[in-house]
């Protein structure tokens, strides 16, 4: 196993390299938890089936996630964003998954040995100098990237275990000819939907509820009584510790917004009925609909020929019922089969859709795409099996997390 290192470094090189990395292995992770409560000496972030998640591991994972989101959000993450993203909870969840996977890897003898991790690292050219692994280069590069040898070597050990799990699942996945045929039909069975999407414009409506309107609303004795009743209802929960005077405007604003949205929903529903009556496969109907909806700044759109292999319509979002109607035979919204435009209520939005074109699968193209489709099905089955297996491991695991950790990253 160490033939490559032996040939490259010789006996002396092996001993030197082993000494450096083994020191880290000896001390990294050797930790006996005294408590999983508080942040005093001996505390841990939690335990998974008795194995400790150290505070060091937690901070490393938390900071990794923080850096990822900083890059995604343009270099800065506010305290409010940290709370909304639940980064601390996510870091703990990630570490729990890692622990159960490593425990299972050990049970199936898929864990990487110290020698294998060492071999993996010494093969990385980024740590080479003059064609050989260089200890100083190794330490400097890790330090420059804010990594400890222990943390880096642990990540390589985990990576090796994950590769072996991938191999483990690959050996147990089979893709049948029928699965390939079904996938081909799904991908090639395309629909083109003409549609109109009416939204509530919640943000716009919210800005229209100005302070002047709030004061006028509160001057009405009936409205004021409703606001007071709302405060009494929530003063032991959502309004706990607050006075009526401090929250009455926000309660009134919510009530006003609710009234506006209720009116808007009703107006949208009536508009949708008009659109349904106008929409057909003829392009002339588009101009009539666009004129009707000019004030709403909404126009007729088309999806183009799309394989609806999920519940999502591009630029619309989840529209399960509309897609179901588009794919069923005969389709109630297929203009070519005498179908009509149909209205779909989607929360605070209304979708009107009509199928104006379709493409059936061309089975003569199956053989030319067979290998690609087989790989797609194979990858999806592995991902699905892995996720189900991982989820079952986590659910069965005995997890004890330290509640104090979620409030600190020290």
Explain the overall architecture.
It is a single chain. By secondary structure, the chain is of the alpha+beta class. It has 2 domains: 3-173 and 392-407, Triger factor/SurA peptide-binding fold, CATH 1.10.4030; 190-359, no CATH class. The protein is 58% helix and 11% strand. The protein is built from 15 helices and 12 strands. The chain has helices spanning 3-27, 55-72, 79-85, 87-107, 114-122, 135-144, 149-170, 177-188, 202-207, 211-219, 221-234, 244-278, 284-292, 320-327, 366-396, and strands at residues 46-48, 51-53, 128-129, 132-133, 190-198, 301-302, 306-307, 312-313, 317-318, 342-346, 349-359, 399-401.
In short:
The chain is α+β, with helices and mostly antiparallel strands. The chain has helices spanning 3-27, 55-72, 79-85, 87-107, 114-122, 135-144, 149-170, 177-188, 202-207, 211-219, 221-234, 244-278, 284-292, 320-327, 366-396, and strands spanning 46-48, 51-53, 128-129, 132-133, 190-198, 301-302, 306-307, 312-313, 317-318, 342-346, 349-359, 399-401. The protein folds into 2 domains: 3-173 and 392-407, Porin chaperone SurA, peptide-binding domain (Triger factor/SurA peptide-binding fold); 190-359, no CATH class.
List the main descriptive attributes of the protein structure presented here.
five-stranded antiparallel β-sheet; 12 strands; about 60% helix; alpha+beta; about 400 residues; three-stranded antiparallel β-sheet; Triger factor/SurA peptide-binding fold; 2 domains
């Amino acid at each position: 196993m160490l033939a490559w290192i032996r040939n490259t470094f010789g006996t002396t090189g092996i001993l030197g390299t082993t000494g450096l990395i083994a020191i880290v292995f000896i001390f990294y992770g050797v930790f006996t938890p005294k408590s999983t409560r508080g942040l005093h000496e001996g505390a841990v972030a939690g335990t998974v089936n008795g194995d400790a998640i150290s505070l060091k591991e937690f901070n490393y994972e938390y900071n990794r996630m923080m850096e990822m989101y900083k890059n995604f959000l343009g270099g800065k993450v506010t305290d409010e964003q940290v709370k909304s993203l639940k980064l601390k909870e996510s870091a703990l969840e990630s570490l729990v998954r890692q622990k159960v996977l490593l425990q299972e890897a050990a049970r199936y003898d898929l864990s990487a040995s110290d020698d294998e991790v060492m071999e993996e690292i010494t093969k990385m050219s980024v740590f080479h100098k003059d064609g050989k692994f260089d200890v100083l280069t190794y330490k400097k590069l890790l330090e420059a990237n804010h990594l400890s040898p222990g943390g880096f070597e642990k990540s390589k050990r985990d990576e090796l275990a994950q590769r072996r799990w991938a191999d483990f699942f690959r050996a147990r996945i089979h893709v049948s000819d029928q699965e390939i045929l079904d996938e081909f039909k799904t991908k090639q069975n395309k629909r083109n939907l003409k549609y109109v999407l009416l939204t509530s414009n919640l943000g716009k409506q919210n800005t229209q509820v100005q302070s002047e309107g709030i004061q006028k609303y509160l001057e009405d004795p009936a409205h004021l009584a409703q606001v007071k009743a709302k405060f009494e209802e929530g003063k032991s929960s959502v309004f706990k510790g607050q006075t009526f005077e401090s929250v009455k405007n926000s309660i009134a604003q919510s009530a006003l917004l609710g009234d506006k949205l209720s009116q808007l929903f009703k107006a949208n529903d009536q508009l949708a009925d008009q659109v349904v009556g106008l929409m057909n496969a003829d392009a002339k109907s588009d101009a009539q609909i666009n004129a009707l909806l000019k004030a709403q700044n909404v126009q007729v759109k088309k999806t183009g020929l799309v394989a609806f292999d999920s519940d999502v319509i591009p630029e619309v979002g989840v529209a399960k019922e509309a897609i179901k109607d588009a794919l069923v035979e005969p389709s109630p919204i297929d203009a070519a089969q005498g179908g009509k435009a149909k209205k779909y209520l989607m929360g605070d939005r209304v979708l009107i859709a009509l199928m104006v074109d379709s493409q059936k699968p061309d089975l003569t193209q199956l053989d030319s795409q067979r290998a690609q489709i087989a790989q797609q099905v194979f990858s999806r089955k592995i991902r699905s099996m892995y996720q189900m297996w991982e989820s079952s491991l986590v659910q069965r695991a005995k997890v004890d997390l330290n509640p104090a950790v979620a409030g600190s990253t020290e």
